[in-house]
């Protein structure tokens, strides 16, 4: 059977989300998560569908890609396709040739943390390793300690509070109230929660959104931010603990997060919140 590359319709996005949920397993590399699609959904369902690519054989999805920024595709590959040479050959050609409609001309990168055959094919074709990222994981089989702050789940009428903290945290005005509501309308958000942490003066100081992949599967923190006016007080650690606790309440088996290794402060914050640092991972890139 031939492998087919397709771009889903909005109605077909649910199939990609379900496949990503199925492929999440503890002990496997941290690859594209349904929460990554959920966070991207802030741009709207149509834009999300336009940014997704699906590889399938005989109508079974084998890989899902998200075009997450200029020249970057983030991938997840089905566990049974780890060593599928036909899939590796097809995907390598698809990401390398602009006419295939995945990546553009110029310098391009692939986030592929799983799929040994596909990784080997890119390396063999001259793709090089990029800057390291650090994945971290917290096991959720045991109860999570109290974070020490008041935590509230963000309801639609409180979206402006979360977006304000997020905008300040990341120095960017792009996560607007409109985009919060677009995110919350997406299929993955049915298994997600937005959280706000408040200090002793009832001021919102930190935020996180957590994404479940279903019971007994790893959940994702994306994104986590602390308002710059309130940094240095342990709120990042507290927010990360609260996020892990929320995922445990949602029956997730573990909590995952990934950050650039160069962001040593973030790595240290997650480690202080009980997250285990996993081996660094690197994208594969090809210069123009």
Helical proportion? 25-40%
Oligomer classification: single chain
Mean model confidence by pLDDT: 97
| CATH architecture descriptor text of the largest domain | 3-Layer(aba) Sandwich
Number of helices: 9
Order of helices and strands: EHHHEEEHEHEEHHEEEHEHEE
Keywords: Transferase
InterPro entries: Acyl_CoA_acyltransferase, GNAT_dom
GO molecular function: acyltransferase activity, transferring groups other than amino-acyl groups
Domain N-acetyltransferase: 149-288
Short description:
With 288 residues, the chain is an alpha+beta fold. Helix content is 31%, strand content 29%. It has helices at 13-23, 34-40, 45-51, 85-96, 116-124, 159-170, 177-184, 235-249, 264-272; strands spanning 3-6, 52-57, 60-67, 72-77, 108-111, 128-139, 150-153, 192-198, 204-211, 218-226, 254-260, 276-277, 281-286.
Give an account of the 3D structure.
This protein has about 290 residues and is α+β, with helices and mostly antiparallel strands. It has two domains: about 5-130, Gcn5-related N-acetyltransferase (GNAT) (Aminopeptidase), CATH 3.40.630; about 140-280, 3-Layer(aba) Sandwich (Aminopeptidase), CATH 3.40.630.30. The protein is about 30% helix and about 30% strand. The chain is built from nine helices and 13 strands. The chain has helices at about 15-25, 35-40, 45-50, 85-95, 115-125, 160-170, 175-185, 235-250, 265-270, and strands spanning about 5, 50-55, 60-65, 70-75, 110, 130-140, 150-155, 190-200, 205-210, 220-225, 255-260, 275, 280-285. Strands 1, 2, 3, 4, 5, 6, 7, 8, 9, 10, 11, 12 and 13 form a 13-stranded mixed sheet that branches. Strand 4 (about 70-75), helix 4 (about 85-95) and strand 5 (about 110) form a beta-alpha-beta unit. Helix 4 (about 85-95) crosses helix 5. The longest helix is centred in the last third of the chain and has 15 residues, at about 235-250. It is globular, with a radius of gyration of 19 Å. The model has no long low-confidence stretch (mean pLDDT about 95).
């Amino acid at each position: 059977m031939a492998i087919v590359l397709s771009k889903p319709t909005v109605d077909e996005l649910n199939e990609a989300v379900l496949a990503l949920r199925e492929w999440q397993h503890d002990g496997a590399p941290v690859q594209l998560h349904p929460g990554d699609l959920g966070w991207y959904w802030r741009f709207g369902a149509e834009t999300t569908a336009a940014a997704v690519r699906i590889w399938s054989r005989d109508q079974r999805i084998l890989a899902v890609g998200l075009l997450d920024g200029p020249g970057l595709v983030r991938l997840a590959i089905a566990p049974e396709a780890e060593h599928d040479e036909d899939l590796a050959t097809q995907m390598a050609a698809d990401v390398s040739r602009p006419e295939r409609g995945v990546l553009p001309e110029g310098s391009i990168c692939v986030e592929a943390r799983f799929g040994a055959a596909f990784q080997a094919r890119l390396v063999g074709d001259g793709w090089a390793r990029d800057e390291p990222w650090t994945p971290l994981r917290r096991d959720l089989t045991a109860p999570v300690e109290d974070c020490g702050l008041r935590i509230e789940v963000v309801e639609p009428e409180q979206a402006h509070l979360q977006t304000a903290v997020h905008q300040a945290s990341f120095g960017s005005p792009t996560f607007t109230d409109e985009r919060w509501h677009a995110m919350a309308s997406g299929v993955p958000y049915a298994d997600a929660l937005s959280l706000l942490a408040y200090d002793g003066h009832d001021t919102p100081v930190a935020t996180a959104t957590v994404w479940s992949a279903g019971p007994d599967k790893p959940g994702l923190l994306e994104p986590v931010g602390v308002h710059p006016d309130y940094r240095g007080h342990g709120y990042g650690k507290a927010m990360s603990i609260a996020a892990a606790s929320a995922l445990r309440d949602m029956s997730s088996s573990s909590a995952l997060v990934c950050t650039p290794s160069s962001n040593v402060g973030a790595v240290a914050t997650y480690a202080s919140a009980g997250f285990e640092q996993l081996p660094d991972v690197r994208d594969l890139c090809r210069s123009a």
